[in-house]
Amino acid sequence: MSKKIINTSEAPQPIGAYNQSVLKNGFLYTSGQIAINPKTGETEFGDLIHETKLVMSHLSEILKKANMTFENVIKVSIYVKDITKFSEINSVYSTYFNEETAPAREMVQVADLPKYANIEISLIAAE
């Protein structure tokens, strides 16, 4: 089975040699999403709760384009500049998942992120 590229105009367009997501053998792999307004192409950084909501909405739109929901998600990777903001991020993140069926996840503090974002999230989902 060949890979299928899945992009949506409801999430930021790729700014390099990558796509928003790739579907292969029933698994959807998303690229990392940051807080870019897909309508304006402008970054919306500063308020971590707003950034997290915007990133999760991008992922939601990508999942929708692939005919999936957050229930299909099996793994999430979260990269943050400040791990002490865990509770702020988790307060938004946890609204997208049922605790009993939530995916595996890691949250890692990094030195920097693309365009100086405060958070970047990617995920893997299965049909």
Automatic annotation (TrEMBL):
CDD domains per record: YjgF_YER057c_UK114_family
MF terms in GO: deaminase activity
Listed Gene3D superfamilies: RutC-like
Entry's Gene Ontology cellular component terms: cytosol
Q: Which InterPro entries match?
A: RidA, RutC-like_sf, YjgF/YER057c/UK114
> Per its UniProt entry, which superkingdom is the organism in?
Bacteria
Family membership noted in the UniProt record: Belongs to the RutC family.
Tell me the NCBIfam families matching this sequence: Rid family detoxifying hydrolase
Q: What is this protein called?
A: 2-iminobutanoate/2-iminopropanoate deaminase
Species of the source: Psychroflexus halocasei
Q: What is the lineage of its organism?
A: Bacteria, Pseudomonadati, Bacteroidota, Flavobacteriia, Flavobacteriales
